[in-house]
Amino acid sequence: MIQDSGMARHALWRLLGLIPTLLMLITVAFFLMRVAPGGPFDTEKLLPDDIEANLNARYHLDEPLLQQYFRYLGQVAVFDFGPSIQYKDWTVNELIRQGMPVSLTIGVAAMVLAFIFGTLLGITAALRQNTRADYALMGVAMLGISIPNFVVAPILILLLAVYAGWLPAGGWDWSIASMVLPVVTLSLPVTAYIARLTRGSMIEVMHSNFIRSARAKGLPESVVIRRHALRPALLPVISFLGPATAGMISGSVIIERIFSIPGLGSYFVQGALNRDYTLVMGVVIFYGVLIILLNFLVDMIYAWLNPRVRYDKKR
Amino acid sequence: MTKSADIPVIDPFEAALGVTDVKGRSPWQDAWHRLLKNRAAVYSAFIMAAMFLMVVFGPMLISWEPDYTDWDYTSSPPSLASGHWFGTDAVGRDILVRTLEGGRISLMVGLVATIVSLLIGVSYGATAGYFGGAADRIMMRIVDIIYALPFMFFVILLMVVFGRHILLIFVAIGAINWLDMARIVRGQTLSLKNTEFVEAAKACGVGDWDIIRRHITPNLLGVVIVYVTLTIPQVILVESFLSFLGLGVQEPMSSWGALVSDGAQDMESAPWTLIVPSVFLTVTLYCFNYIGDGLRDALDPKDHL
């Protein structure tokens, strides 16, 4: 198919375009950490010079900066982030492998929740445009966007964990109960945003000519909505999923801290505070790659869903 | 808005009848009327005005100093009798005064960092859009690249690397938040630069930079106003986020994020220390979002259905 080869070429082109972004990500993260005042081995007790020299040699901190940079680039190219400076005996890869499943579980669960509830609420509001139900839903959605995660989390803990005692206040043991609060908190702002987005685009679609044609054909309203309106109405939501993921990842830093969850975000904050160069860069690069790839994926899904965006030249 | 009353009188017959009070309205006046019809936005504007007044003058009117520790009333609940209307924290500091003081920092960060992002974004976007071609492609490619970076992580890195100075918070947040502004301004500039009045200015021999400054930028005002109102709450949120993690402003200075963080520590014994700053922060973000929404609807009537 001509269309598909156009798509494939476009996909390849976009993938190549990711390389400068990745290089920039690694470069900025690397040099930022290196210009930081204070080294990773600063402790209250001054280390003897030869021990410090040995440590520096172990982590290649004694080499010229450019040499360190290129050594690091070479390592990252084969997905080796080196040993962690603070957690001795651990490599950054091991730490990421340890934290990732937890963070990923929360993130994916929150995203699925946000997508389902956000679109449902948005469509509900759109079909009752300018009624009380619509205003109420959108008022609540605006509140969801406005209340920060770190306000919602303590209040939910206070109400549902401390006062009611229904759910644990924190911790992580892979039980559903320990997942409920963090996942719900993380998904709230995204749910609210998706609801607003869906409402807007749904209203626009319902006013368009092809919907009028579908109704004129005598199709029942439910079929008009499901078969004709839904797909174009969800397009803006699809393109929002990329930024939403980025937002969720930074939100998870706070969530993991509040609920004391041993995910990647906690490692990141801990590493940043301890100047654990290798760990911090590992997490930043890992998340950066994740966000970049997801954005790429979202673009492709968007093109696939939207017949107006096709990447072949012969129309 | 094409009601008959809005169309200026051009009919000599009508003029002869003496109907002279019918005047045309400028687009700005139209926008203003649309904005006033949006009740949520108007109420929000009033609440924000009250909030600004409280935050600026409140601490002068309340007799407690923000760092005064009242040992007779530690962790005391809100009461009129003790004089601590919104209670005190674990070391006896008045919550209301601390919240208002924190509000000064939060709102100031919101305004200053937004101005930083405004200056960078408008000049960058207008330049890229006006010159177009290769310059535009390269400049926007750079924006795309930065856009894909995990923004929050870089702010955290910046704070860790350069220490937690308040000036740095302004710059760090502003320097990262200008991307959206640049994109929007560029798009607007692209459509503006082919208009007749720009052509006329060129024909008169006006230089490129003067055209950007005198003819393009003023016409970007509508979009920029909308975007500024929506950036302020974002920036306040980022600052609170950092302060909550302990990476924002430092003691004795305080901000809403730092106060919420403190309050979350003591919430079991003294929930008001969490609730009071949370309410102030949330109300502010809520109102700014509504004002921004209202302004967008008013200034960009395309979306009206």
Structure description:
- Chain A has 315 residues and is mainly α.
- In chain A, 76% of the residues lie in helices and 0% in strands.
- Chain A contains 11 helices and no strands.
- In chain A, helix 4 packs antiparallel against helix 5.
- By secondary structure, chain B is mainly α.
- Chain B has helices at 12-17, 27-37, 39-61, 95-131, 133-147, 151-162, 166-192, 196-203, 208-216, 221-244, 256-265, 272-299.
- Chains A and B meet through helix 1, helix 5, helix 6, helix 7 and helix 9 of A and helix 5, helix 6, helix 10, helix 11 and helix 12 of B.
Structural class of chain B: mainly alpha
Task: Give the uncertain stretches of chain A in residue-range form.
Answer: none
Number of strands of chain A: 0
Low-confidence stretches of chain B: none
Question: What is the compact description of this entry?
Answer:
Chain A is an all-alpha fold and 315 residues long.
Topology:
The complex is a heterodimer of chains A (about 325) and B (about 300).
Chain A: H1 2-35, H2 49-58, H3 65-77, H4 92-127, H5 132-146, H6 149-163, H7 176-206, H8 209-216, H9 221-258, H10 264-273, H11 277-305
Helix pairs in contact in A: 1-11, 4-5, 4-7, 4-9, 4-11, 5-7, 6-7, 6-9, 7-9, 8-9, 9-10, 9-11, 10-11
Chain B: H1 12-17, H2 27-37, H3 39-61, H4 95-131, H5 133-147, H6 151-162, H7 166-192, H8 196-203, H9 208-216, H10 221-244, H11 256-265, H12 272-299
Name a few traits of the molecule.
heterodimer; A: 315 residues; mainly alpha; 11 helices; flat; B: 305 residues; 69% helix
